[in-house]
Amino acid sequence: MPHALSFDRFEIRPDERLLLENGTPVALGARAFDLLLCLVVHHDRIVTKDEAMQSAWPGRVVEENNLSVQVSALRKVIGSTVIATIPGRGYRFAMPVTGFPAPPAVPRALPRQDIQFTASGSGHRLAYAISGSGYPIVRAPHWLTHLEADWQTPVWRPLLAELSSRYRLVRFDQSGTGLSDPSTDPVSLDSLVDELAAVVDAAGLDRFALLGMSQGAAVSIRYAARHPGRVSHLVLCGGYVRGSLTRSPGPRTRQMVDALCEIVRGGWGIDNSAYRQIFTTQFFPGASREQMEGFNRLERASSSPERAAQLMKAFSEIDASGDLGSIRCPTLVFHTRQDARIDFEEGRFIASGIDAARLVPLEGLNHFPLEGDAAYDLMLEAIGAFIPAAGKAVPRAP
Description:
Layout: E1 5-7, E2 10-13, E3 18-21, E4 24-25, H1 30-41, E5 47-48, H2 49-56, H3 64-78, E6 83-86, E7 90-93, E8 113-119, E9 125-131, E10 136-139, H4 149-152, H5 157-166, E11 168-172, H6 189-202, E12 208-213, H7 216-226, E13 231-237, H8 244-247, H9 251-267, H10 274-283, H11 289-302, H12 305-315, E14 331-336, H13 344-353, E15 358-362, H14 374-386
Parallel strand pairs: 10-11, 10-12, 12-13, 13-14, 14-15
Antiparallel strand pairs: 1-2, 2-3, 3-4, 5-7, 6-7, 8-9, 9-11
Helix pairs in contact: 1-2, 1-3, 6-7, 9-12, 10-11
């Protein structure tokens, strides 16, 4: 770190623990100084409340109102608009800083997840995990997941850390994938909805927000339509309610689906990742090399080739469009305009079919925004403003 960091009329000298205003020392408490230094050093990103508290009270657990007191003290000294509050996430230093290169990114430590099992209606054991605390948010199942491997991949790790820092996050592996029992049973939209129902009941959730990504959007929509009193909020990202054979029926689409399923069956399990890379490139064409390699490994770890192909075939035939008109909870729909996997029109179709749904178009190439995408921060800020803060009660729908 350099000798001095500058912003506006202020200068921070970390080694001397001094804050100067136009060259004159400013009286600042030790906690406030450490907090300011943390915000300035990480001015290129949002600093979470946990990070901010650890910077001022390292190794200690303190009440959040102590942090608010220090932020208020800093605003009185350097200006009320310099430290911006990002609802549900933390703070951002809203002023250019000079005097040093951007700090290297440090992966956030993930909270502990509690993995448990429950029986599905078909008798298979479903693995589900709970992490974080606060208002519950449930991630509906999509193509391939693995409760443990998801924590490690750079594709999902940042999102799981963000959600777990604010909410009580519940995730599960659908039957035949991840830590759930192996299965070759037929897959349908209704069977996936039944698995979701079994998990939320086992987790003791009465009312919760539901996050549906990709195929998880159709599962979420059908569950919310059937259980309107339990779903308080719907967040859908890169979602569809009509599978490819439903959206575009015909021999050409059928040939494409069959060809992709055969690629999975024939090449999924071998060491050469070229076969899995076909799907990674479709999902995340704008990903970094590290993110792509991580998703390639996740695909192989999450499912057998046969089950992956079976799920792909089933998802191509789903249709939850008839459930859209039954949704009564507030709904937020994210979709990237250049999504190569699911056309933006499907996101617009979903939002237009749900009363009072809000469509948030995102810029980017990836099926879901990844950390490093401009759309990633936009999506998280919108979710933080949409779903209630930790511990805040949400009235039951009439």
